[in-house]
């Protein structure tokens, strides 16, 4: 039936020249479709899933999220890195080079991977309530560059430093993890790494895997003197300790917020929520991965 390549032309690294180079690595009967508006990638994937043998996506993490929310899992998906960070293809072993990733995806194998859900919305690699969702919101508030593209990793690092400075390194508990305890914010991982800062992986939860349930890391309360230790733990992968909640391979947990707090999935702002119901969805889709 042929394959489909969905391209987000506003992704940070996507150009017409790159699309042409990627296209040469894909099956010869691959059709190329470019998105023109948010949400379009998911709609295209939903419409075309039954009429193609594979769907490739050359874009960033937000577009991957649209696609996994649009499909049923009937055909394999090839996630090709076209964004500034592109966590998902890197976590699947496809690397940072989109042309090489396309070659690896075509020549590789298939892997059933689990996804997460929060309040019914799927996510591929991470989600968060509070701190990291606030960072996503601050980056979005900066708007897009003149070429329509989102600020890169350095902007996130800068936003994080500003947020910590604005709070003077103090984050009080603002949410309750049902049946477990209080926390300042919640980081939820569906794989390891959680994200990347340029070439550097940020692990957060080293045990997280596409083959397992969800991992949760949630500090109960943060004071200025504890910030360096927490940052080091998140970078290398957190372990349970007094003052730090860590759950591994969880099927479901519920977060209740004292006030509406921002929620993000795969780097996309979902708005403020009073409650967040997290669930694991095993073997939800099939990804094309290297051998």
Summary?
Helices cover 27% and strands 35% of the residues. With 291 residues, it is an alpha+beta fold.
Q: Can you walk through the features of this model?
A:
With 291 residues, the protein is α+β, with helices and mostly antiparallel strands. The chain folds into 2 domains: 3-107, Probable inorganic polyphosphate/atp-NAD kinase, domain 1 (Rossmann fold, 3-Layer(aba) Sandwich); 121-283, Tumour Suppressor Smad4 (Sandwich), CATH 2.60.200.40. The protein has 8 helices and 16 strands. The chain has helices spanning 16-25, 40-48, 61-70, 87-91, 98-107, 131-141, 153-166, 227-236; strands spanning 3-7, 31-34, 54-59, 77-81, 109-118, 121-123, 126-129, 175-177, 181-183, 186-189, 195-197, 200-202, 214-219, 244-250, 252-265, 268-289. Strands 5, 6, 7, 8, 9, 10, 13, 14, 15 and 16 form a 10-stranded antiparallel sheet that branches. Strands 2-1-3-4 form a 4-stranded parallel sheet, with helices on both faces. Helix 1 runs parallel beside helix 5, helix 2 (40-48) packs parallel to helix 3 and helix 6 (131-141) crosses helix 7. The chain is globular, with a radius of gyration of 19 Å. The two termini are 24 Å apart. The mean pLDDT is 94.
């Amino acid at each position: 039936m042929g394959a489909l390549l969905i391209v987000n032309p506003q992704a940070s690294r996507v150009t017409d020249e790159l699309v042409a180079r990627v296209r040469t690595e894909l099956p010869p009967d691959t059709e190329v479709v470019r998105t023109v508006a948010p949400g379009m990638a998911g709609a295209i994937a939903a419409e075309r899933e039954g009429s193609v043998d594979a769907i490739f996506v050359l874009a960033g993490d937000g577009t991957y999220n649209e696609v996994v929310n649009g499909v049923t899992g009937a055909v394999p998906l090839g996630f090709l890195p076209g964004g500034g960070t592109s966590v998902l293809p890197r976590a699947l072993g496809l690397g940072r080079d989109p042309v090489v990733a396309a070659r690896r995806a075509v020549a590789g194998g298939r892997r059933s991977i689990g996804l997460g859900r929060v309040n019914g919305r799927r996510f591929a690699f991470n989600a968060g309530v509070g701190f990291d969702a606030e960072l996503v919101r601050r980056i979005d508030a900066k708007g897009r560059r003149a070429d329509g593209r989102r600020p890169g990793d350095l902007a996130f690092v800068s936003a994080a430093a500003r947020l910590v400075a604005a709070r003077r390194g103090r984050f009080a508990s603002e949410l309750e993890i049902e049946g477990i305890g209080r926390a300042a914010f919640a980081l939820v991982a569906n794989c390891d790494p959680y994200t990347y800062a340029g070439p550097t992986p940020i692990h957060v939860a080293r045990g997280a895997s596409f083959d397992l349930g969800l991992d949760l890391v949630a500090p109960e309360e943060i004071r200025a003197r504890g910030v360096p230790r927490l940052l080091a733990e998140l970078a290398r992968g957190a372990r349970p300790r007094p003052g730090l909640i860590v759950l591994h391979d969880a099927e479901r947990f519920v977060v209740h917020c004292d006030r509406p707090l921002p929620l993000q999935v795969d780097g996309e702002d979902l708005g403020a929520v009073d409650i967040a119901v997290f669930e694991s969805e095993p073997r939800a889709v099939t990804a094309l991965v290297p051998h």
